[in-house]
């Protein structure tokens, strides 16, 4: 039984789930929310109120940016007291970035915010969108016997798994199991029953007030290392005008070349106040900079450890911290501390 005051706000941003095939061109185009409801008549069977909010025009998720994240935060904040949970329909390409950003921007969150979508449009016979949407709504309204929501955090639901949003990466463009949380257990597994992994779910306590944040600074770059990378490539990235932070994608457990010019470039950038965060290119595992000499030399150059952070989480967390205008030393310190369960230290 769901309590009488249960309700969900369905926020449609765009993405494959809400697309339909143009008969003439064969291309997928966005359609509106009413058509979505037509394709999923099961929505009528929920015994509680489902409100809707639609981005107009809908966005392809490759166009997602901090302005769209601010809009989502505002919609959730404005409606926070009117709904018991929120489900965001979103394209898969940047879903992990949006989920990560929201986990930092919605401080004190005590209600479910679930992002979902699909690999096949809702109008297609074999669509995965219907299952993803219906289950997300069910999880968004799930409560403990005392009325507290079971999953009061930002998460992604896709193909039978509920995952912490800022731990998730899109790793498959073809299969229905598009997302994976490599370094953190799933929050729930869905079969005939929904099995919640309560130990892993993050709770803020019932007395927390939602504190929405809107300040983000996008002067961030991602620098992926590869054998043979040229000094001028690294120099030009680090010399980018206005640059304040770099996510450095290193090898293995946080290793990088030991070339003199490379370490000197990083040291100079760090001394100029650019925050450089070390994350691994590997899908799973953590950065341990004390483990090998190469990692230790990065520490000496002022590079900070990103632990088991995803690139998506590291990028959005830096935007969030820089948006608050913390000095570089404070940003470095906070990058080593979990703010929303995004890293294991």
TrEMBL record:
The positions flagged as active site in the entry are: 16, 92
Family per similarity comment: Belongs to the asparaginase 1 family.
Question: Is the keyword Hydrolase assigned to this protein?
Answer: yes
Q: What is its EC number?
A: 3.5.1.1
Q: Does the keyword Nucleotidyltransferase apply?
A: no
Q: What is this protein called?
A: asparaginase
Where in this chain does the record put each Asparaginase/glutaminase C-terminal domain? 219-335
Residues in domain L-asparaginase N-terminal? 8-199
Q: What is the lineage of its organism?
A: Bacteria, Pseudomonadati, Bacteroidota, Bacteroidia, Bacteroidales
SUPFAM superfamilies documented for this protein: Glutaminase/Asparaginase
Enzyme class, spelled out:
hydrolase
Q: Which PANTHER family match?
A: 60 KDA LYSOPHOSPHOLIPASE, L-ASPARAGINASE
> What keywords sit in the KW lines?
Hydrolase
């Amino acid at each position: 039984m769901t309590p009488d005051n249960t309700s969900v706000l369905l926020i449609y941003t765009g993405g494959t789930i809400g697309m339909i095939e143009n008969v003439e061109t064969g291309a997928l185009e966005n359609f509106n929310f009413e058509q979505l409801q037509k394709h999923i008549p099961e929505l009528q069977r929920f015994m509680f109120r489902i409100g809707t909010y639609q981005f107009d025009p809908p966005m392809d998720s490759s166009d997602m940016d901090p302005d769209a994240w601010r809009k989502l935060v505002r919609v959730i904040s404005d409606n926070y007291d009117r709904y018991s949970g929120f489900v965001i329909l979103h394209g898969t390409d940047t879903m992990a970035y949006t989920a990560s950003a929201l986990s930092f921007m919605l401080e004190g969150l005590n209600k479910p915010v679930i992002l979902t979508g699909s690999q096949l449009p809702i109008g297609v016979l074999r669509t995965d969108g219907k299952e993803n949407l219906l289950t997300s709504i069910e999880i968004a309204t799930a409560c403990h016997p005392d009325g507290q929501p079971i999953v009061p955090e930002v998460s992604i639901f896709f193909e039978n798994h509920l995952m912490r949003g800022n731990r998730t990466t899109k790793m498959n463009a073809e299969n229905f199991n598009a997302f994976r949380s490599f370094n953190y257990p799933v929050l729930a597994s869905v079969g005939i029953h929904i099995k919640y992994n309560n130990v892993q779910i993050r709770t803020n306590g019932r007395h927390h007030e939602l504190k929405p944040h809107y300040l983000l600074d996008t002067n961030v770059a991602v620098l992926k290392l590869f054998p043979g990378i040229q000094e001028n490539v690294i120099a030009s990235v680090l010399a980018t005008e206005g640059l304040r932070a770099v996510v450095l994608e290193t090898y293995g457990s946080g290793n990088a070349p030991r070339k003199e010019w490379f370490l000197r470039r990083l040291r100079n950038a760090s001394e100029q106040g650019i925050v450089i965060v070390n994350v691994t290119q590997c899908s799973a595992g953590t950065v341990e900079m004390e483990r090998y000499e190469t990692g230790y030399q990065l520490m000496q150059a002022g590079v900070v450890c990103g632990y088991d952070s995803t690139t998506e989480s590291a990028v959005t967390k830096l935007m969030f911290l820089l948006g608050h205008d913390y000095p570089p030393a404070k940003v470095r310190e906070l990058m080593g501390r979990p703010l929303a369960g995004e890293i294991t230290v």
